Amino acid sequence: MCVKRGLVLEGGGMRGIFTIGVLDAMMDSGMEFPYVVGVSAGACNACSFVTRQRGRARFSNVEMLRQYKSQYLGIRQLLKTGNIFNVKLLYDDLPNRLWPFDYDEFLRGATELDIVTTNLLTGEAEYFPNHWEYFDELDKEESHRLALDIILASSSLPYVSKTVYIKGVPMLDGGIVDSIPVKRAISKGYKKNIVVLTRNKGYRKPEKSSLAFNLLSKVMYRKYPAFCDALRKRGEVYNSQLDMVDALEENGDIIVIRPDKPIVVDRIERNPEKLDALYDEGYAIGKRFCDTFHE
Q: In this structure, what are the phi and psi dihedrals at residue 48, rounded to the nearest 5 degrees?
């Protein structure tokens, strides 16, 4: 069943396991979309969804965490590599050997996917399509590496990740400036969308960043003043997006799928049992949606 709406996927780090549950329920029901836009963890999970590789996203988030433990994420990884997540494991071993990513379907499949990053030079969002014509100018290995770099950039958290360069431009987590890219879906012609959030209804982020983080950003990203400004405004921008989502939902312009209760999973969660429980919640809510959805 191809739904004539866009699908918008919020990020949230390991909270994205909720989204994985929803997407697995959609795949089990045969639900597809002509257009998907994902940011950060939402972009990572969208990739396995548009390639129809059911189970792959959960494997990468839960089973690999169980297997690799501190090698998967943590302070040791951050001190050793500059990334709190094991980039080699997740963006080389996983897609190329452990559970091969279907690059052909990603680059040439029917579903259009936009991946959101933040441009450090401008402090604004960048949107990279999986059908980007630039991929065609590269050989097979180069196009695969670029695809992985874009996905990595979208989910590279500030402060605890290395900057990723896309065609020489420094990029980091797209959620810094466009955590819920509904406007992007609308700009692509999808006036009615389904939005998957990783926070319960009513959640709002503290709008003022701490003095410590403001000072840290000015030190770490001193070459990128526009990006520092975006970091400072992150809470305010995110809350305004949530206000927009609530208004669109109330008007019937979007359908929102979100957790029923406050999340107990951290953005950088290391407890697989908590992830299992959140996945189950996402799957149950996703199945309920699929069983009752009418175009």
A: -70, -25
